[in-house]
User: Which sequence fits this backbone?
């Protein structure tokens, strides 16, 4: 069990991998998402050529080796792998607890920022 947790946490240590997992969460379960577009944080744009190389040689093989995603090169796309739910639950848990996450950890994560703003906006004013 410890090894599986290590694999999940290693998978979420890099921004392009986090963005890809979030994009797959937003997509229908049986569909793929385009790359490198789906691995880019809109708040921190990256050089698309460099990102494409990093995805192809590092991020996508690592996620696929653990069964979190599947991917194809022509066109470059990714889909949910057989173990996708193991990484998805991390983001679903964070999103459902967005108001409890310290501000510095929310800043820069568009999804958590949005979720926190919506939940705080729904709460009564003090």
Assistant:
């Amino acid at each position: 069990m410890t090894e599986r947790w290590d694999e999940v946490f290693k998978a979420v240590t890099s921004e392009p991998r986090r963005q890809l997992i979030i994009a797959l969460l937003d997509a229908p379960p049986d569909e793929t998402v385009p790359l490198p577009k789906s691995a880019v944080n809109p708040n921190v744009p990256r050089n698309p050529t460099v990102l494409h190389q990093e995805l192809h040689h590092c991020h996508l093989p690592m996620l696929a080796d653990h069964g979190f995603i599947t991917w194809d090169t022509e066109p470059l796309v990714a889909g949910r792998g057989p173990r996708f739910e193991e990484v998805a639950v991390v983001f679903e848990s964070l999103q459902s607890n967005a108001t409890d996450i310290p501000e510095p950890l929310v800043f820069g994560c568009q999804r958590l920022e949005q979720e926190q703003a919506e939940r705080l906006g729904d709460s009564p004013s003090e």
Summary: The chain has one domain: 2-122. Residues 51 and 57 are 10 Å apart (CA to CA).
